[in-house]
Design goal:
This protein is of the alpha+beta class and about 170 residues long. The protein is about 35% helix and about 20% strand. It has 7 helices and 7 strands. A 3-stranded antiparallel sheet has the order 1-3-2. A hairpin with a 2-residue loop joins strand 2 and strand 3. Helix 6 packs across helix 7. It is elongated, with a radius of gyration of 17 Å.
Length: about 170
């Protein structure tokens, strides 16, 4: 059952998610010039999900983001994270959205990590991540805090180690 998902996870590995760009100032001459090819490429790689910083890097201003949300061209998933052109998210898109919300340093943990490691078969209904900094839990994303995070990679995704995942599940 999880072998079907192994290929899926190859498609959403953290290395395929665009890194947060350094923000550059937008000059008046550049305003309105959206790099639609870049925007489409990033959203495609990330299962239709994109961050506000990635939108800015493609030339989309904050006011344009607001207009696009009102026009339902963008759908807010989490603070600073949007679905481009649709509101229905696959599990892959939900995982990417959670990573974009928490940052790349946050590994999947608890039942989400157990599923990624194939320790359980049930797909996660709520995404769990562990962070060392400040980030709030959301309806679909449960944030756990730890000063010391034991990180690993499974199927290209940042996860807690198997040992830490088992401790988290037992606790």
């Amino acid at each position: 059952h999880n072998s079907v998902f192994a290929q899926t996870f190859c498609d959403i590995s953290a290395s395929r998610i665009d890194h947060m760009p350094h923000l550059r100032p937008v000059t008046p001459a550049q305003r309105g010039k959206v790099d639609t090819e870049r925007l489409a490429a990033v959203a495609t790689r990330q299962h239709g999900v994109i961050s506000r910083a990635q939108l800015r890097a493609a030339g989309v201003s904050d006011s344009a983001v607001s207009r696009w949300v009102q026009a339902q061209r963008l759908h807010r998933i989490h603070p600073g994270v949007y679905a481009l052109g649709h509101a229905g998210l696959s599990l892959d898109a939900r995982l990417v959205a959670a990573l974009l919300y928490c940052g790349y340093q946050a590994p999947f943990s608890h039942t989400t990590a157990a599923w990624v490691w194939s320790l359980i078969e049930a797909e996660p209904t709520r995404i769990h991540l562990t962070v060392s900094g400040r980030r709030s839990s959301l309806h679909d994303v449960r944030i756990h805090r730890s000063r010391r995070i034991e990180r690993a990679t499974c199927r290209g995704l940042p996860v807690t180690t198997v040992a830490r995942t088992l401790v988290d599940l037992a606790g």
